[in-house]
Amino acid sequence: MITSEEIKRRLWDGANELRGSMDASRYKDYMLGLMFYKFLSDKTLEAFKVTSGLGQLTESEMVEEYSKARAEYGEELDKMIQGVLGYYVRPEYLYQTWLIDINSGNFEVQNVTESLNNFERTIAVSSDSNEFKGLFSSSTLDLTDTALGSNLNERNKSIKALILLFADLNMVALQKGDVLGDAYEYLIGQFAMESGKKAGEFYTPQQVSEVMAQIVAKTSNINSIYDPTVGSGSLLLTVKRHLNKDVQKDLSYYGQEKNTATYNLARMNLLLHGVRPEKMTIKNGDTLSHDWPEDPERPNEGVQFDAVVMNPPYSAKNWNKAALKVSDPRFEIAGVLPPDSKGDFAFLLHGLFHLGQNGTMAIVLPHGVLFRGSSEGQIRERLIDKNYIDAIIGLPNNLFTNTGIPVVVIILKKNRKIDEPVLIIDASRSFIKVGKQNVLQEKDIAKIVDTYVERRVEAGYSHLATRNDILENQYNLNIPRYIEAINEEIPHDVDAHLLGGIPQKNIDDLKILQSIVPDVLGRFLSKIREGYVELVKPINEISDDILSDSRIVAISEDMKSKAKTYIDKYWDILRIVDNNSNLNQLMDEMLIEIKSILSEFNYIDIYDGYQIVAEIWKGSLIKDTEIISLSDFYTAGRTREPNMLTKGTGDKKREEQDGWVGSIIPNDLIAKRLYSNELEEIETKRTRIQEIEAELLELVEAAKVDDSDEANALGDTLNEAGEAFDNKLVKAELKKVSKGTVEFDLLKNVEHLFADKSELSKAVKADEKALRDAVQERILVLADEEIDSLMYEKWFDSTVDAMISLVEKPLKIELNTLQVLYTRYSDTLSAVDEEISSFESAFEALMSELVVGS
């Protein structure tokens, strides 16, 4: 029962361990290439098994049967498997054959080279399998590369270790739940982050892909999709994920990639995600130099697509190596060629040329395209006049591994209504920091997409720019011209600083408090002069009174009730997921519904609630529902897995089992809820150990005081650092002193403390082991009601409270503002002057008392 998360972790850990000093951008070709070959081999064996009607056999038995059948039927068997899959792998070249050779000690890296070459040869003679040709070319997988090892023996060792990494993974079974594709995509992303700048050639961060894919999927009727700079194919696959299953079945994928290794990676990625060969057309070529795909019957129109998505190289220099003219059909619409020094608009115009009349295009570009002049300014002007720009979305900087610059997503359509405004969104401040990168959270993505779909206007975040707005700005689309960031700093009031009091206009700006509890707020304010008030109670008391007001309590109770109903509904659904459940769809339903529930409440940020549910999925539900779907809720609750730890270093590094852990129920939670008495006893002993350590520390400090009883009795028993007692020295000193003396009593006390601590430490260790063993065994016999209770706590324990806190959050923000205002104006200028005058008088009095000696 291996989950996608475990596969991802294991494969990435293996990659880090095996690649040594090889650059991640290069090592990915070997690892992902061999992983894909395992997939081809597994699919071949599966096709043979199904077509031959064989029953349950072990993998080695299946290889043996396949070898016998191949010897008997020869090319007839090859054609049969190829008819099913579009390709085949002969028995002697299977991945499983490599494993047999490894186990028998007969493996050589030449086995792999011959297998890959044979696959290339068998595919080359077939006109039906273009998507598999060249996948394992020597330019991608060069097994003679010295980076794999300085000699043949070292290379043998490296490749053998990599082959073993995938040995026990059934790629066919893993593909059914998209587990395999997710793991592959995860590895691509991890390699991208490790590769730094080079990664920009083939990888779009998942969060940026999500923004583009969700917008495209929600606004187009999609039968075909095209990415002219396809990279690893992640954008195409992200759009696929947001389409329903029926649409996915008929979806045609097109893409072009200049880098050969990355082109191969894209084809592998799509095939692993279950895209049929006949549904994908991926080309290795330069998108700008030669237009593709072309329609021979309509050379001036090009092939049109329902959706176009792309993340091209930014500001590509010397893009026009083919000496293209403005007469090229792709650029005719602009009336001018983009500058040779910056290819941004060249890519945009290429994508737009291939966009269908009712389609949607999303492209990521640097901000410069919004405001740069010369030919780029002319192109922008033409696009606006043609009414093709639908939206501009400003994203935070430092989202990409290959550049720190902020980028924009531009959405284009050809069927916009006349005079429909351009939606501009500034999401540049919506992110969290994860390591060195800025990251969009799920709530940030949801807000961007909702704002786009609803064409929503929000101060400081989004704006609908009319044609007149754009003309007034002379076709400059720079986001700050249309959206002014909200300055949350409250301006200072000179009169309030001089005379005291809080300006009434600042009180009036506390919109939420004024709306919900204006009378309560008013009770705590006293007018001191026209336009200024003071607080009649400390702010903490005001906060308590407001938050406990019946109206606030009623809102909180309403939230509690709705949150509880929501949780109970999905609690019942989540427990019965099975192999036919669409877990991504279930997650989307939960997220959409929580937004709907929270929208019934005024002043609450629904996206904060959205994030609460998204975090539950990310933290627990993605993994847990996958495990539950493979068996059932209660079986999964009573299932445990080996707890594997990595021990040793270098050649002695190994994995060893250290007990068991619950598949879905954490051991710590079982201990906390079902063994609370045992935990309390252990904690009591730990507390006593801490008390003993404190007593010993006090005696150590006392022993450092000269001529004290402790110094005389214990000074010689301190260790060399003088920071602790040495137990052996204490015992030695005890033999030298007489009973009944102060020295003896002090030494004996230290000895007892050491003994008590040792005994307690052993007891804690024994108790912890006994508890750990008890918990590991208890997993197997948990009652259904215990599983219910534990899993409900794991998934939803703090969810209701978190939702209720959304009610209080905006109130607390305004109460904090009230505190800031109070603090700001509490010291008036006159009060400060009086204080200074008082200090001066005191200083003068002190000076007059000083007597100067003769």
UniProtKB/TrEMBL annotation:
<keyword id="KW-0680">Restriction system</keyword>
<dbReference type="InterPro" id="IPR051537">
    <property type="entry name" value="DNA_Adenine_Mtase"/>
</dbReference>
<feature type="domain" description="N6 adenine-specific DNA methyltransferase N-terminal">
    <location>
        <begin position="7"/>
        <end position="164"/>
    </location>
</feature>
<keyword id="KW-0808">Transferase</keyword>
<dbReference type="InterPro" id="IPR022749">
    <property type="entry name" value="D12N6_MeTrfase_N"/>
</dbReference>
<comment type="similarity">
    <text>Belongs to the N(4)/N(6)-methyltransferase family.</text>
</comment>
<dbReference type="Pfam" id="PF12161">
    <property type="entry name" value="HsdM_N"/>
</dbReference>
<protein>
    <recommendedName>
        <fullName>site-specific DNA-methyltransferase (adenine-specific)</fullName>
        <ecNumber>2.1.1.72</ecNumber>
    </recommendedName>
</protein>
<dbReference type="GO" id="GO:0009007">
    <property type="term" value="F:site-specific DNA-methyltransferase (adenine-specific) activity"/>
</dbReference>
<keyword id="KW-0489">Methyltransferase</keyword>
<dbReference type="GO" id="GO:0003677">
    <property type="term" value="F:DNA binding"/>
</dbReference>
<dbReference type="InterPro" id="IPR029063">
    <property type="entry name" value="SAM-dependent_MTases_sf"/>
</dbReference>
<keyword id="KW-0175">Coiled coil</keyword>
<keyword id="KW-0949">S-adenosyl-L-methionine</keyword>
<dbReference type="InterPro" id="IPR004546">
    <property type="entry name" value="Restrct_endonuc_T1M"/>
</dbReference>
<dbReference type="InterPro" id="IPR003356">
    <property type="entry name" value="DNA_methylase_A-5"/>
</dbReference>
<dbReference type="GO" id="GO:0008170">
    <property type="term" value="F:N-methyltransferase activity"/>
</dbReference>
<dbReference type="GO" id="GO:0032259">
    <property type="term" value="P:methylation"/>
</dbReference>
<feature type="domain" description="DNA methylase adenine-specific">
    <location>
        <begin position="176"/>
        <end position="488"/>
    </location>
</feature>
<dbReference type="GO" id="GO:0009307">
    <property type="term" value="P:DNA restriction-modification system"/>
</dbReference>
<dbReference type="Pfam" id="PF02384">
    <property type="entry name" value="N6_Mtase"/>
</dbReference>
<dbReference type="InterPro" id="IPR038333">
    <property type="entry name" value="T1MK-like_N_sf"/>
</dbReference>
<dbReference type="InterPro" id="IPR002052">
    <property type="entry name" value="DNA_methylase_N6_adenine_CS"/>
</dbReference>
<feature type="coiled-coil region">
    <location>
        <begin position="675"/>
        <end position="702"/>
    </location>
</feature>
